[in-house]
Amino acid sequence: MGSVFVAGATGVIGSAVLAALGEAGADVVAGTHIPEEIEPLAREGVQARVFDFSDQESMVRAMQGCDRLFLTLPLAEGMTRRGHLAVQAAKAAGIGHIVRSSAYAASSDAHWRLGREHGTVDQFVEDSGIPFTILRPNSVMQRFVSVLAPMVRSGVLALPEEYAKVSYIDACDIGACAARLLLDGEAHHGRTYALTGPQGISLAEVAAILSGAIGREVVYRPVDESVYVENLSRDNVPEWTVNMLVSLTRVVKLGMMGNVTGAVAHLTGGEPRSFAAFASDHAGIWS
């Protein structure tokens, strides 16, 4: 058996997959588009190769000697084109199994833009002729320690999601599921799994959990979509990404993201991590 190529290995989900594969002692090649990340990965004993999602030949070279691919894509304009190039590169490199990390409720004919973008890439994977498994995780808890961390520190979560629930999932659980499929996934070829955390919670409930974890008040303040867009634009978020994020908040408000599945337990044998446990473990980040 050859190596596993992890595309986007230093992103939130990619790094979780890399860690899970490392714990299992797998032979892994980490793919990154940032040359400066090669040395830190090497110090951790991880072979890393630079590639460019917009350059198919660079991906073919990076995947050489690998027979399995974990494919996640950055949230950036041109995502579907990059996904198509990655799938074509996988075919050229002789990849024998693709585990694709998509998005919850994604579909090539989804009525919401981000779901449609992800779903189109999923369709490329399905049509490739390469054995595949698709993971569709809900919103990751790590958003609250990255892009939403400043809001948490300010004490106010200002988002346009009303009081709809989301079954947030820890990226580590996604990593564990992907690692299981990459190492022993033949029985799961052709299948799609919706990954969630153990419960659906609203942002008001998120704020209450965060308050308890960090020992000071955090509140949820619903805002109009126009205010959210203005804040993203002020932070120089690209227009395409703004549109994708707005589409996500709209589908949350429709109540489509609060369902809970048993896929994590089915794939890993363990229950998914709760948001309360996540908040407790990361409390220092918001201090």
Quick synopsis:
The protein is α/β, with parallel strands linked by helices and 287 residues long.
How would you characterize this protein structure?
This protein is of the alpha/beta class and 287 residues long. The chain contains twelve helices and nine strands. The protein has helices at 12-23, 38-43, 56-63, 79-93, 113-127, 149-154, 171-184, 203-214, 225-234, 239-253, 263-268, 275-281; strands at residues 3-6, 28-32, 47-50, 66-71, 97-101, 132-137, 156-157, 191-195, 219-220. It has a seven-stranded parallel β-sheet with strand order 3-2-1-4-5-6-8, with helices on both faces. The longest helix is centred in the N-terminal third of the chain and has 15 residues, at 79-93. It is globular. The protein starts with a strand and ends in a 6-residue tail after the last helix.
List the helices and strands and how they pair.
Elements lengths: L2 E4 L5 H12 L4 E5 L5 H6 L3 E4 L5 H8 L2 E6 L7 H15 L3 E5 L11 H15 L4 E6 L11 H6 L1 E2 L13 H14 L6 E5 L7 H12 L4 E2 L4 H10 L4 H15 L9 H6 L6 H7 L6
Parallel strand pairs: 1-2, 1-4, 2-3, 4-5, 5-6, 6-8, 7-9
Helix pairs in contact: 1-7, 3-4, 4-5, 8-12
